[in-house]
């Protein structure tokens, strides 16, 4: 039986200084985990090109894109991003946006596709923030709509942090709808206005989370009538996450991912999934946590015989 198409590139995990608080190796560990689980094989692996500066400039200031490309952002801007600049980090940044673009394009063809990176939703028009340089969700949504490949895109962002960059960049796009399920007490402390912001209180568990999601998501689908969905399946909603203030368990994340993906498939709407945030000192455990989404996607891909 065919497996869900997956998008990954070995450049996703460049070397950064040991002990840095961003878990850069998680992308490589996620690929290893999915290989060991039999979810990722040579047959369903798709390798992206780097996004072009022109594609990225659909959602960002061209000067910002160029300055990052050449390592010429100010120290203040790099501090806001929270990552060191190196050729490796720079290359992976363009490559990962290309990965989300490829994931979206493949989803148009296959109906359901998952990326092993992506979800850099704190990146704003002319500056980065919170480990995010360029906003792959905003770039992919605009590329699809401007190219006529989709006409109404819904971005469902379930990372524990609000997708503030996405909301601000896309605020005036009438054909792209931003929807963020996040924890009220998490970063960013000054929230943006998504088209739909669904806030959960600190300490909410899986039951409260799913009740809220089941209440709102079908309504949001009915209202927006998307013909394409980008799904950010951030796992920083997990109980053991070092940044997130929600208390979902592994099984709750699996239930959430299945619910969101089924909402799309039941309506015949193609869905491209990205991994979003996740922070745990135990990097292997973190990679396995991200891999929950790919396992669920693979099961549903086969169930719906896509
Ligand atoms: Zn996050």
Task: Give the SSE layout.
Blueprint: E1 6-7, H1 26-37, E2 45-46, H2 53-56, H3 62-69, H4 75-81, H5 87-110, E3 112-115, H6 136-146, E4 153-157, H7 164-169, E5 176-183, E6 196-200, H8 206-224, E7 228-232, H9 250-266, E8 271-274, H10 283-303
Bound molecules: zinc ion.
Question: Could you describe the 3D structure shown?
Answer:
With 306 residues, the protein is α/β, with parallel strands linked by helices. It has a single domain (6-14, 23-303), classed as 3-Layer(aba) Sandwich (Arginase, Chain A), CATH 3.40.800.20. It has 10 helices and 8 strands. The protein has an 8-stranded parallel sheet, with helices on both faces. Helix 9 links the parallel strand 7 (228-232) and strand 8 (271-274). Helix 1 (26-37) crosses helix 10, helix 5 (87-110) packs across helix 6 and helix 9 (250-266) runs parallel beside helix 10 (283-303). The chain is globular and about 45 Å long. The N and C termini lie close together (10 Å). The mean pLDDT is 98. The chain binds zinc ion (ZN). Zinc ion (ZN) binds next to loops.
Short description:
By secondary structure, the protein is of the alpha/beta class.
């Amino acid at each position: 039986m065919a497996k869900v198409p997956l998008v990954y590139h070995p450049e996703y995990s460049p070397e950064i200084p040991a002990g840095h608080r961003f878990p850069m190796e998680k992308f490589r560990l996620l690929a290893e985990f999915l290989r060991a689980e039999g979810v990722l094989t040579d047959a369903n692996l798709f390798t992206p090109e780097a996004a072009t500066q022109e594609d990225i400039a659909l959602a960002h200031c061209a000067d910002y894109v160029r300055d990052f490309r050449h390592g010429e952002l100010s120290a203040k801007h790099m501090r806001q991003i929270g990552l060191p600049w190196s050729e490796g980090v720079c290359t992976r940044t363009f490559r990962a946006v290309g990965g989300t673009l490829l994931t979206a394009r493949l989803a148009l063809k296959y109906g359901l596709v998952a990326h092993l990176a992506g979800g850099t939703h704190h990146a704003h028009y002319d500056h980065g923030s919170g480990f995010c340089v360029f906003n792959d969700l905003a770039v992919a949504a605009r590329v699809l709509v401007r190219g006529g490949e989709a006409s109404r895109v819904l971005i469902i962002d379930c990372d524990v942090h609000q997708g503030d960059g996405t909301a601000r960049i896309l605020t005036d796009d009438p054909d792209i709808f931003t929807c963020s399920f996040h924890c009220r007490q998490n970063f960013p402390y000054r929230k943006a206005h998504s088209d739909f912001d669904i806030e959960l209180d600190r300490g909410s568990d899986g039951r409260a989370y799913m009740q809220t999601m089941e209440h709102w998501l079908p309504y949001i689908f009915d209202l927006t009538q998307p013909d394409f969905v980008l799904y950010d399946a951030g796992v920083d909603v997990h109980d053991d996450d070092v940044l997130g203030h929600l208390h979902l368990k592994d099984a709750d994340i699996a239930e959430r991912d299945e619910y969101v993906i089924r909402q799309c498939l039941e309506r015949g709407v193609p869905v491209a999934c990205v991994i979003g945030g996740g922070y745990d000192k135990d990097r292997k455990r973190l990679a396995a946590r991200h891999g929950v989404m790919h396992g669920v996607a693979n099961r549903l891909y086969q169930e719906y015989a896509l």
